[in-house]
Amino acid sequence: MDKLEREPHIAAVIFDLDGVIANTVYYHYLSWQQLADEEGIPFDKHTHDEGMLGLNREDALQYLLGDRASKLSPIQQQLLLNRKNDYYLQLINELNYDNLLPGIGNLLVELHAAGIKVALGSSSKNAEIVLQRLKIRHLFDFLADGNSVSNLKPCPDVFLYAAEALGVAPANCLVVEDAPAGIAAGLAAGMWVLGVGPYERLARAHLVLPTLADIGWADIVEKVNYYHKSGG
What we know:
Layout: E1 12-15, H1 24-39, H2 45-51, H3 57-65, H4 74-91, H5 104-114, E2 117-121, H6 127-133, E3 142-144, H7 157-166, E4 173-177, H8 180-188, E5 192-196, H9 199-202, E6 207-209, H10 217-229
């Protein structure tokens, strides 16, 4: 874990999208699975979760293709990405507020009421569509996604871009992530990082919770303060 020396004063929270706000990770898996099946590429959910979770779509395609990537031109690879994205957009067409992961809806409302700035920091290029389908776009002050920066996670650019837009110093931001690449990006940005999911996968985060269900903003602040006072 990377220790932050300053006393915590969190003025903004930057959320990842897939696997934190809604389980769109599963839709990504299904769309990659369809593409893999059509192309005759061995693939399963374990392969997706272990190797592709948190990657941007270009890097995920490279992982899926493996040695096949060198045999395909950039145009051919882009056509594959377009097909995968079409499958994904079809799958998320029915998303609504009920698809939010447990606790996230209440937490967003609490943050809004407390005057804490909220942003999205996602590698997804469909983030705007997803938030609108989930009926929560109005609860975000800013959206930084795969269209916003050139260097995506594990580079810190998307989080730094969001913090700058919010007018909040990185040390006063809390990143909420569920993937190792996102954890690395948040730490590289010099922000507090809360991992949501299995500790084994997210151990580098300052704090790790199995879920956001039944967790309020006051609980998170208390845990961050305790972490700081205990020296991590």
